[in-house]
Amino acid sequence: MVNEQKLKGYENFVNFMNTLDSKGKPVFVYFSGDKVNGESWCPDCIRAEPIVREQLKHANPESLFIYVEVGDRATWKNPQCSFRKDSRTQLMQVPTLMRWGGPQKLAGSQCEKADLVEMLFTDEE
After folding, report:
1. Model pLDDT for residues 103-118, shown as the tens digit of each residue
2. pLDDT tens across 42-61, in order?
3. Choosing from 2, 27, 42, 120, which is the catalytic residue?
4. Fewest Cβ atoms nearer than 10 Å: which of 56, 78, 103, 113?
């Protein structure tokens, strides 16, 4: 079964990723707007999350799935948002799903397309 790690905020994300040793196993990172009372402020994230979670069944069972909350709406919309500026993430939209260390990335409404999400989870590089 895929192992999941939930992180909130840029500092927690950076700290976790800097110490991550995936031992060669696939790592997928899903960026979403913060949740308040169990629901994201981001409507696209609300639509995409169940699709992403459903398609996780296709990922290598030894994969790591990292769920990252990027902040509240005001934090995310700030052009200086650290997630936007970080060369490893270069986020332009939430939700964004990426294979860490590889070019595979889905953003915005692409995360709502089950076939694209499945392809990202099953692509071997």
Report:
1. 899 999 999 999 999 9
2. 999 999 999 999 999 999 99
3. 42
4. 103
pTM greater than 0.70 = yes
Report the candidate in 100, 104, 94 with the shortest Cα–Cα distance to residue 49. Answer: 94
Active site residue 81: no
Q: List the alpha helices (DSSP H) in 68-113.
A: 73-77, 82-85
Given 2, 7, 29, 45, the catalytic residue: 45
Residue 93's φ and ψ, nearest 5 degrees, are -140, 155
Active site residue 42: yes
Given this structure, which CATH class describes domain 3-122? alpha beta
Beta bridge partners of 32: 69
